[in-house]
Design a protein that fits this description.
Layout (H helix, E strand, L loop, with lengths): L2 H16 L3 H8 L3 H9 L6 H11 L3 H5 L1 H4 L7 H11 L6 H20 L5
Length: about 120
């Protein structure tokens, strides 16, 4: 099964699992019901950003669905990583270095917290 067919099946199952209509999903991700229908029926393939947005709303992993990490020979962002990238793009360019520094400190603190034993 190719990646696009797999995505189509997961998308359809996600809608059913959530009890959500194509129109409701479209409203949440900024796409028309017709566009969502084309994706569900396999008539067209979503852009990566649209695929990530739908994966986020329907709570499925875009990277696992497309099997990107294994098949492409390079690391592709997961749905959560796409969200982080989209949020970062909203930061004014003159403040992006500051945001990166905050993230670096956050990672450092998280790593130090993981190193501590549960008895501390």
């Amino acid at each position: 099964m190719d990646r696009n067919e797999n995505y189509r099946r997961v998308l359809k199952a996600g809608l059913r699992r959530r009890g959500m209509t194509q129109k409701q999903l479209g409203n949440l991700v900024g796409l028309s019901q017709h566009t969502i229908s084309d994706y569900v029926c396999g008539k067209s393939v979503p852009a990566v950003g649209d695929a990530a947005a739908m994966a986020k709303v329907l709570s499925f992993s875009l990277d696992a669905t497309y099997d990107l990490r294994e098949n492409e020979g390079m690391i592709q962002p997961s749905a959560m990583e796409w969200t982080l990238l989209q949020l970062f793009q909203q930061v004014p360019p003159h403040q992006q270095k500051d945001v990166l520094e905050v993230l670096r400190w956050t990672v450092k603190i998280a790593k130090e917290t993981d190193k501590r034993s549960p008895n501390e």
